[in-house]
Structure formats: C-alpha cells, structure tokens
Amino acid sequence: MANEALLRLDGVSKRFAGGVLGLDDISLDIAEGEFLSLLGPSGCGKTTTLRVIAGFEAPTAGRLLIDGRDITTLGPAARPVNTVFQDYALFPHMNVAENVGFGLSLRPLDAAERRRRVADALARVGLAEKADQRVQALSGGQKQRVALARAIVCQPRLLLLDEPLSALDANLREQMQLELKRLQRDLGTTFVMVTHDQTEALSISDRIVVMNRGRIEQAASPATLYDRPATRFVASFIGAMNLLPGRMGPGEAAGATVEAGGMSLRVPLPAAPPVPPGDILVGIRPEDVQLGSEAGAAGAVPGIVEGTSFHGRSLRVHLRLAGGADLIADVSRSALPSAVVQGERLFVSIRAGAACALLPADR
Ligand SMILES: Nc1ncnc2c1ncn2[C@@H]1O[C@H](COP(=O)(O)OP(=O)(O)OP(=O)(O)O)[C@@H](O)[C@H]1O
Ligand SMILES: [Mg+2]
What we know:
Layout: E1 7-15, E2 21-30, E3 35-39, H1 46-54, E4 61-66, E5 69-70, E6 81-84, H2 96-102, H3 111-124, H4 140-152, E7 158-162, H5 170-187, E8 190-195, H6 198-204, E9 207-212, E10 215-220, H7 222-227, H8 232-237, E11 242-248, E12 257-260, E13 263-266, E14 278-284, E15 289-292, E16 301-311, E17 314-321, E18 326-332, E19 345-350, E20 357-360
Parallel strand pairs: 3-8, 3-9, 6-7, 7-8
Antiparallel strand pairs: 1-2, 1-4, 4-5, 9-10, 11-12, 11-14, 12-13, 14-20, 15-19, 16-17, 16-19, 17-18
Helix pairs in contact: 2-4, 3-4
C-alpha cells in the first residue's frame, strides 16, 4: 500500500500491574522521515508510549505495526528502533568511541566497518575530535551528543528520544534543538521525541501529539495546534489562550459569528472537528486582543484593568470585561498611548482576521 505508515499504533493500551492505566487506546500513524513530538504534562503517558514502541513494555491491548507488519510481540533488539535516554545512560569506564561503538557490539560487522561507522556517527554530532576522551570529562551537551551518536550509529528506522535536552541550560538547549533538527533532516530518520516543553515542541517538530491522561488530545502540525486547537486542554496547554464562554447561533457552523464576553466575534476558520451550535468556548490569543482608550473600534467593549505584567517587548494586561469575563491582552509597548494603570477603563476589541478558536463548551 502506498503512503503506508512507518509505524502504526492501533488501539494501544497499557495497564500496569497495580491497575494504573498508563495508555488508554492510543491510535497513531507515524510517517517515514517525520519529526514527531509527544507533548503533555507529567504522568500523561509520554515515556510509556516510547517504551511500548521500543519494546521495553508490552501493551495490554492493541497492536504495533512497522511497514504494516505486526511487531507487537517482537523484543527490543529485533525492532529497527533505538532510544536516547534522558539520563544519557553512558558507560563511565569507556571512552567516547567505545560508548558509541557499544551500540554495534551485537552486529556482525568487521572491525574496519565498525570503526568507519563510529567515526561517521561522531562526525555527525560534531565530536570527531573527542573519540578518545573519557566520557566523565565531557560537558552536559557533549554527553548528550555521545548518546545521540550511540543511537544513530545503529542506523535505526526510528529514533526515540525521551526529554533529550532537559538536562541542558536554556542557551545550549536552543542550540541543541537546531542541531537535532538538522541531524534528523540529514539522516532522513524518523524521530519521536518526548518533551514537556511546548516551545521546544513547537519549534522543532513536523507534528506534535498532545497527550493527556494516557490519551491523545490532538495530533497536528504546530501551526494547526496553535491556530485551531481541537480541545480545551490543547487550547490552554499550547501558549496563552483566553477562553470565553459564548454562544453560536444555528446555521453558523463555518465562518461563524459568535457572541462572547459581550463581543460579537467573526470566527474566520471552521473548527475541526466541527462544533455544534449552542453554548461554546471561544479561544482568543492574547496577542489578538486590542486595547483603546476610546470606543473607536467597531464592536469594542469596555473593560477594567486588573493588573499588568512586563513581558519585554509586550505588556500583558489583565482585564475584567463589563460582562464579568476575565481576559488577558498582550500589547506592544510601543503601541500603547500611555501607561496602563490598574483600575483604568479601556475598550477591548479583537484584531480583525484573528484566528479565534471555536471549542465545544464541554470538551
Ligand atoms: N512501571 C510502572 N508501574 C506502574 N505505573 C506506572 C509505571 N510506569 C508508569 N506508570 C504510570 O503511568 C502513567 C504514565 O507514566 P509516564 O512515565 O508514561 O508519564 P510521562 O508522560 O512520561 O511523565 P513525565 O513527564 O513525568 O516523565 C503515570 O501515572 C505513571 O505513574
Ligand atoms: Mg517521562
């Protein structure tokens, strides 16, 4: 079959001894060459998903298929999958090259081929010069690179990475994100990375799977998750989002006009999945909220400033609308007519063309 998934998770559940349901009916297709991130709060099942894919954990229901072939009962070594563990799991008594070569120790390769592959993997992660160094003498970022080299030296079809950058400080982390993305493109290998850092997931991934309580909330591109979250959980987990209770009239399913927070809003995009008319939630990004000192803008409603916080280029303004709803606005400091002070009355409107999200009130 054309376009067959590299890996398919088909109704996978994992119930641990003791009764905890770690994964609850996960179905997901992962395409060849994709950079996929698993994103979600602590305990949502990210690591369990990786362990089930790697074969360290057997699902209690469902199947895993690679190229359409059922691998559910195959052991880890028989799967074309390698894992980079969060704590790197390097061998302290081996040097860099030995650590990397360890991944190949079970492969029937001659010594020259083994050396060539180790050198290639080290070069790809920028550690060609460090082959003979002891791993204890390396920095955190260098250890991370050794762990990556040890995984890619096996030329897996699928590379699993569990919070690979979480031990690194912010600057190094951003640099390593770029390197990881570049490495993935160069190799063309499918990467599945666990992170609980939404910024990291948004900047690095082709597609993000947002998980919550062992289930998939939404699997989509970063832009789709940001502009068209499918659930309330995704809307509030990815970036800052105002969620205003509102109403949508019948016959308004696509390109709807909705009432929320006393405002009549034109929602440009049809929601996916579609939201039935009636009580709804409208998601509005803080950067799409405009503030004015007069009721100039069409449809502007009054609001009282409850407080402000400094966010560099922008100021975050917390408002209470006349109807009682709370709203946050991120406004460019250079665009502000004057200092915004607590207790001030301002007029609130939504930027024309803003991608407001429509969500069912109960999801
Ligand atoms: N071996 C185990 N035995 C029993 N329960 C487990 C086991 N491993 C994980 N769990 C439970 O399964 C759920 C999912 O755990 P998992 O480690 O996959 O979460 P996670 O998303 O990786 O979280 P974190 O971000 O904290 O690493 C949690 O409730 C956890 O307590
Ligand atoms: Mg985990």
